[in-house]
Description:
By secondary structure, the chain is of the alpha/beta class.
Amino acid sequence: xxxxxxxxxxxxxxxxxxxxxxxxxxxxxxxxxxxxxxxxxxxxxxxxxxxxxxxxxxxxxxxxxxxxxxxxxxxxxxxxxxxxxxxxxxxxxxxxxxxxxxxxxxxxxxxxxxxxxxxxxxxxxxxxxxxxxxxxxxxxxxxxxxxxxxxxxxxxxxxxxxxxxxxxxxxxxxxxxxxxxxxxxxxxxxxxxxxxxxxxxxxxxxxxxxxxxxxxxxxxxxxxxxxxxxxxxxxxxxxxxxxxxxxxxxxxxxxxxxxxxxxxxxxxxxxxxxxxxxxxxxxxxxxxxxxxxxxxxxxxxxxxxxxxxxxxxxxxxxxxxxxxxxxxxxxxx
Length: 333
């Protein structure tokens, strides 16, 4: 377990820059009141220490905020609903409140949100995905606030991690379609980093297994039914003999299934379709969607447990947890 030490203070910045704490404050808040050379020295010290101003420092504050902040790529759609509900319920049972923000699959927005939240000094920060911005990672490490990255996997988390490998997921779906006899396959996927990792793994594994054709159709995240229809229509035109399609969300898969019906393509007779997420509508679709089940509830529970243990000074035996995934086979394959 990583040791928790004090975050950098304004006094640390002042000492490194060779100025007073008041000058640091002026350089950060009213830079026109200091010389350019002084402002540059202060900025260099801030960057070197990973210092983020504490917005609560000037007022009275309780010993602990009992507040955890969570950053999601999107608030639209049901993809992360289980995770958020589970996280909020688990935290609430122990007297913590959850504050939610949205980054929109944008590294700059992610970094801005993280630095703004650090100023409020929450008891912990939960991220859906691993940190993509070097500046955000540096600020989190310097803050010494407990952090749990989720919904992804890395060998070098900021602090703690609860998730699964998108590379392994893409490879597993490729193997599943291969085992069903599909040799002309494709993927309809979002264009964010996690989706691209899945897609690259799916294509590479399909080719290694001897697929005669393995193609990819990218759409902007977050995914929609319309994008699924558009993706399948494109693949039908450009990939003759296509027999298996992996969609990186159940929404895309449902859209692809609707487009197949519109074009008179039998699912699964002529085309197998597999989604991801096992959303509530997947089992009620016609045909019911085969999909990759991601245990958002378990991820939320574990993230809350790790966060509360760290925030309350209790030992964390396992900082990195791989919850895995399962393929739920239904009528669409």
